[in-house]
Every structure is written in structure tokens, then in C-alpha cells.
Amino acid sequence: MALRIAQQLNSPYSAAHATRWLRASEHGRTVLAQIRADKLNALTPAEQLALAAGQRVPGLVASFLSGMVQEHERGVGGWQAEWPTVAAVIQATGLAAASMAEVAEGLKVDAAQMRSNIEATYGAIFAERATMLLGSKLGRDVAHKILQEATKKSSKQKRHLSEVLAEIPEAATHLDRATLRRLETPEEYLGSAEAFRKALLSSKPLKIKKKEQ
Asked: What letter would DSSP give residue 60?
């Protein structure tokens, strides 16, 4: 679903991540093959509903953008047109969330396969991290150019990105050996994920009191 939605929204970055997720499970690989063959019969009903909802929202966003035109003194249709659009977006979002909750219940974490998927990228998945590290020293544009060439070389020669960066003078000057060794360690590139996870698991469900009849 995520891959199809990413394709609909013309987001190659999201599509690449969705592809890695699909490769992590047997069902995911089956779905990926079906999507590439343009056959969606491998999708469950819940997955199809989530995909349908995702395809509706971009068109509804266009209605929001049209309603942003500033009208003179009083509304002549802009904000009135937003009412049904807001309702439709909420409906589609709710449907997608409920459908994905059903899908998530059947997910199984395959840590070994996930690690294998990361290794298969030869460190390219950590290019963004390297760009940020170098960007603070050399500037974003220079760092982006260095990583663009490094990832191409890494993929072509099937060598880890950290090894390639160690051979580039501009990168090696600002990234010491210890930093390069840790560059491709997933556990050190989680951002605030752990804090969010703990907060989510420790949070109590919201209780809504029913009004007395």
C-alpha cells in the first residue's frame, strides 16, 4: 500500500523505503512482485481499502488549495467548499488508519531479514546521516555532491559506503575512523524513535465519559 501511495504521490524516496519494507517478509515480497507486474490480487481487503483511501486524498488536497484564494470582505464559496472536503479527508484518513491497524495486527518482525536488507544497501541507507555530518563542516551542497558520488561508487563496486568515504580526502578530513565505523550502525541512527516508543507504551488510553441520557 505504502509503495502504491508513494508512486501516486510521485515520491521516489518514500517508494524506496516502502520497497525495503516489503522485502522484509514473504508476503511483502509477494505483494512487491504483484505490484511490479501491475496485479494487486495479493493485497488483502484491508490493504486495498487503505490504498483506495490514499488515492482519494491527493485530489481532495487540490480542493483545499483552490479554497485558499483570498476573497474580498466576505466568503463567496471558498470556505463553504471546504466543509465537505474536510469531512471527506477525515473519512478517508479514518478508513486508512483503521485498515492499516488491521494489517499491523498480522505483522511479524523478522530481525534477521531486516538486518539483511540493510546490509544489502552497502550503507547507502545511511547516506543521509553522512550528509548531515559532512554538511555541518562543508556545507549542504558540497556534502550532497560528495555523497552522491560516494553512493554511486559504493553501489557499482559493491563496497560499504563508509569504506568509500574513507578514501575521499574531503570526507576523511572531517569524519574520523571511529565516526566512519559507527556510520552504518542502525542503533545509532534512531533519532527520537526510542523516546517516542517509550512515551507511546507508557501512555494511558484516553477515557471518554459518556453523557448521561
From this structure: H
Q: How far is CA 69 from CA 66, 89, 131, 209, in A?
A: 6, 20, 38, 40
Tell me the pTM: 0.54
Burial class (CB in 10 A: 0-12, 13-18, 19+), 162: buried
**CA proximity to 5, closest of 64, 57, 71:** 57
pLDDT number for residue 102:
82
CATH number of the domain at 122-188, out of 1.10.10.10, 3.50.50.60, 1.10.40.30, 3.90.190.20? Answer: 1.10.40.30
Quick one: DSSP state of residue 212? P
Higher pLDDT, 205 or 37: 37
Q: Which residue has the cell 474580498?
A: 72
Residue 100 predicted with pLDDT over 80? yes
State the cell numbers at 109.
518482525
CB 23 within 8 A of CB 32: yes
Residue 148 CA from chain centroid, whole number:
20
Q: Rounded to an integer, what distance in angstroms lies between the CA atom of residue 148 and that of residue 185?
A: 20
**pLDDT at res. 211:** 46
